[in-house]
Amino acid sequence: LSPLVLPYFHVGVLAAKGQSCGSLSDFTLQVQGPVRVQEGLCILVPCTVFYSHKDWTYSDPAYSYWFKEGVDVNKDASGATNKQGQEVQEETQGQFFLLGNTGTCSRSLNIRNTRMHDSGSYFFQVERGNMKFTYKSNQLSVHVTALTQTPNIHILGTLEATRPKNLTCIALRACKWGTPPTFSWTGTCISSPMIPNCPVLTLTPWPQDHNLTCQLTFPEAGVTTERTVQLSMFFLYALLNVAITVFRGNGTGSTITENGLLPYVQEGQYLCLVCVISSNPPGRLSWDQGSLTLSSSLEPGVLELPKVESGDRGEFTCLDQHPLGSKHVSLSLSVQ
């Protein structure tokens, strides 16, 4: 999968193979329109031309020109031409290209790095031998609209906390012309230096990481487009925090994040042990006392001891089983 893919638009009908451009008695231009393209992208408009077989021979090359409506064909340069060395408009130089050789009927117009001022009507002119004709009745209408297409951020597989992963910024369609865009990445999750103008980002994510943005800039048109994703939507992270919160009968609570000893508990006292985890998706919680697995009618991870008994002394363990592994935390209960 190529990381650099830009939109390409193909409009119109090509001439039938083997049909002579001078086989008709009149002048005909086949071009479809109007056509639309987003700013900064490129467009290919196929065009087929036919003209009267007068004042030229088959040895004469056929030269073609595209002019923007409003120019004087006798004084002004064209926007695009296939005549080598012929002057073109400064604003279309390196941007408008006439495709198709002088021996065929195809005169496709390729516009690259489109800009808003490219919008308008364009008419065609053909020149061959002593024949010159301007097609004013069938013009090409081009509408350049604001750039709304955004790239995609492709994540192959699943994001896992603390494990490096490659993310790729891509668009949806391919275009072989035009100036490539520049890539940039922004986000608080980016900690290591990035390769300049690279669509691939190597990221080591953490659960606290949130938004990541890929921005494309089309330098010739001076426009940008971007896509932001919430990493948490793609995250699968293992247990980073497992803690037990102990609530006593008087409503006070204390938290144990590492295996530890709970201060003495009076016999007959109420205790509620709540196991708190941080993982996505949530793992399967269970409570063990020694080698016994305890059941609870409350929410998963909650173990209630209405009246502590002497037989409750010992080690209580909260276990979280997760697709990426498991983790546990224990406390030792002493009963007076």
From TrEMBL:
Location in the cell: Membrane
PROSITE patterns on file: IG_LIKE
Example GO BP: cell adhesion
SUPFAM superfamilies given in the database record: Immunoglobulin
Gene3D superfamilies recorded: Immunoglobulins (2.60.40.10)
Entry superkingdom: Eukaryota
Residue span(s) of domain Ig-like: 3-141, 265-334
Topology with respect to the bilayer: Single-pass type I membrane protein
Pfam families tied to this protein: V-set (PF07686)
A single cellular component GO annotation: plasma membrane
Keywords associated with the record: Cell adhesion, Disulfide bond, Glycoprotein, Immunoglobulin domain, Lectin, Membrane, Signal, Transmembrane, Transmembrane helix
Gene Ontology molecular functions: carbohydrate binding; sialic acid binding
Family indicated by similarity: Belongs to the immunoglobulin superfamily. SIGLEC (sialic acid binding Ig-like lectin) family.
UniProt-recorded name of the protein: Ig-like domain-containing protein
Organism of this sequence: Loxodonta africana (African elephant)
Lineage of producing organism: Eukaryota, Metazoa, Chordata, Craniata, Vertebrata
